[in-house]
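User: Could you check the structure of this?
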Amino acid sequence: MRRAHPSHSLHAQSGVAPALSVDPTPTTRKAPELLDWLGIVRLEVDAHLIEFFEDKKRETEAISPPTLELVDEIEALTMRGGKRLRPAVAAAGYRCVRPGHGMERLVELSASLELLQSYLLIHDDWMDGDEVRRGGTAVHTSLQQRHGNPHLGSALGVLAGDLASAYAWELFLEAPYPRQSWPDACAMFLQIQKQVYCGQQLDLVGDANVARMHALKTTSYSVRGPLLLGAFLGNPDAEQLRALTDWAEPIGEAFQIRDDLLGALGSADSTGKPGMDIPHGKVSSVLSELRRSTRPEDREPVEVIVGRIDVDARQLEQAHACLRALGVVDRLERSILELRDQALRALERGAFNPQGRGMLTELADKLTVRRA
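Assistant: Sure, the predicted structure tokens are below.
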């Protein structure tokens, strides 16, 4: 059995995100005396994940020692990166409905969201042929290198993703949902996964409806799903759920546009993954806006590298310069700001506790102004 982690004191402040005080436990002894609430969410989730993986390694050792390589890969990916933004969104959703102290009702859900993301990232990297994730080797690539066999490594990567999915469900089933909220929470956890699969299919085939793909693939499991799953822990009313959804929809779209800009223009140093979406032929909001707003002859430096993974650094730099010169980047940045403002207006209309409102206000910036 995993032990319960000590809770941290959360102090509500009117209209602003709360601070959390930290006890000097073994997992936080190097932390400052006071950390912001986002830092505490990460500390608590990481502590729970560390303990969870220790349990899974003991369990796997007893069942099939060779399978530990899959557990190790999932753990490495999960623990080496990520800002725990989905757990933060879930925490804010809960605090909008039930203000209070500590993370004791949130850690299982939060950890399950991180394992769900690991599962989706493992499969996504394999499908896209990406070899780098979070500044390290993608899971399928790591297993290919270990076994010296590309096909076997890819197959094992798929299995690692499947196992991460099972772990996500295992953690989710431990979350302390009120009896009356459990059916809605379970339906939501299922729904966001089905929507991600639909969105991934649209992404793979290059469907022209980028907004629909974003809503299914990103908003669903990155913003709306975690937000409502967190709220269900507090047994929300219908008005609160509507307002939370009205905040989540534009923030999810803005989050994906930011992700697309990073995927097209980012570097491995800044994002943990090289900006190769255009050479990979990814039909993102960047290419969609470029083709919608410019003439074919003007966008040629970009179009010539679409789908060409052998592109050199000079061609990539020319494509980036073209995107900026044609105003594509500026227009997408304005769209992000407009979507953020739309979400904040929805937040003002919501019947939320000031503590949760402050957390969502902070997250609106965190999710849309991020650089990695």
